Automatic annotation (TrEMBL):
Residue ranges of coiled coil: none
Keyword Transmembrane: yes
Domain of life the protein comes from: Bacteria
Keyword terms of this UniProt record: Membrane, Transferase, Transmembrane, Transmembrane helix
Molecular functions (GO terms): phosphotransferase activity, for other substituted phosphate groups
Gene Ontology annotations for the cellular component aspect, listed alphabetically: membrane
Family annotation (InterPro entries): CDP-OH_P_trans, CDP-OH_PTrfase_TM_dom, CDP_ALCOHOL_P_TRANSF_CS
Organism name: Aeromonas molluscorum 848
One Pfam family it belongs to: CDP-OH_P_transf
Protein name from the UniProt record: Phosphatidylglycerophosphate synthase
Annotated TM spans: 21-39, 83-103, 109-134, 146-166, 172-193
GO terms (BP aspect): phospholipid biosynthetic process
Similarity annotation: Belongs to the CDP-alcohol phosphatidyltransferase class-I family.
Length: 201
């Protein structure tokens, strides 16, 4: 929901960082992979209750996720880069939730509920992107992306905010997980409705 506004704010700072990196020959894929491994460090940190340290890894991952796109726009956006980026993102999102489940048995059910909801948002997002790609449909808001970004209540910005709150308030994990899962299910419902009717027409 807030991604379109966040992109406007962060695009210029990321571009300023990306230009020297691109000149040094650093590729978007290298940034994607490095950011992924940094983000995955949050999994064991969360499991052992090191929430502040995990938050640092999560935020660095998200910064590098924006940075790889900025570098890609300099070198040229590719399908393989877009595939790598979105796949690693989804694995990272699931790993963070799994880390909280490992941190406490009490988190298992809310974590499973949130992962169930993530499956809905992820599958609806990717399924529509595939169909939009087949039909040559372009998103006027995210035209710089390598695939069609179908919006909703719970996008990247909201997910980052959720992870920050969970790390800062780990004892609130259950209500945060259940609440966000409910918003994800609303997103799935609206995507199914709008996606189906968009493709039908």
């Amino acid at each position: 929901m807030f991604d379109r506004h966040a992109i406007v704010l962060i695009r210029r700072p990321l571009a300023l960082i990306a230009r020297p990196l691109a000149r040094w020959g650093i590729s978007a894929n290298q940034i994607s992979i490095t950011g992924f491994f940094i983000g995955m460090l949050s999994l064991p940190l969360l499991a052992f209750g090191q929430f502040e340290e995990a938050l640092i890894c999560i935020l660095l991952n998200r910064i590098m996720d924006g940075l790889d796109g900025a570098i890609a726009r300099i070198h040229g956006i590719t399908d393989c880069g877009g595939f790598l980026d979105i796949t690693l993102d989804f694995i990272f999102y699931a790993a963070v939730v799994w880390g909280f489940a490992l941190a406490s048995p009490a988190n298992a059910l809310p974590a499973a509920t949130l992962l169930f909801a993530f499956m809905g948002t992820g599958s609806s997002f990717l399924a529509f992107a595939i169909m939009a790609g087949k039909r040559g449909i372009e998103n006027p808001v995210y035209h710089h992306k390598s695939l069609y970004y179908l919006g909703g209540l719970t996008e990247g910005s909201e997910t980052i905010a959720l992870f920050v709150l969970m790390c800062l308030l780990p004892h609130w994990f259950a209500p945060l997980a259940y609440g966000f899962a409910a918003l994800c299910l609303i997103t799935v419902a609206t995507r199914l409705w709008s996606g189906y009717h968009s493709l039908k027409s």
